[in-house]
Design a protein that fits this description.
With 93 residues, the chain is mainly alpha-helical. It has a domain at 2-37: Histone, subunit A. Helices cover 43% and strands 4% of the residues. The protein is built from 3 helices and 2 strands; from the N terminus they run αααββ. Strand 1 and strand 2 (85-86) form a beta hairpin. The longest helix has 21 residues, at 17-37.
Length: 93
Amino acid sequence: MFDVNHIAKLARLGLSTEEEKKFTKELAAILAFVEKLKEVDTQNVEPTAQATGQQNVMRVDESEKQDEKTRGQILANAPETKKGFIKVKAVFE
């Protein structure tokens, strides 16, 4: 019961007596499973951060030139512009 109460205190959770009993059983089952995992031979297993082999595919960040008509339409739809650019609120002040 000490472990469950300690964890509940750290998490600032108030547990009823029934919850303490329930979580004590669940925590015991989890810890037993972890002990079982310690028995697995991992001597020849390479450490890995991810197992799928997938990589992020990134494109070059390039702007596209717009003709004046398209640029004018874009700026006309903006709520506010300044010197030919869309004006937005400052992120950092």
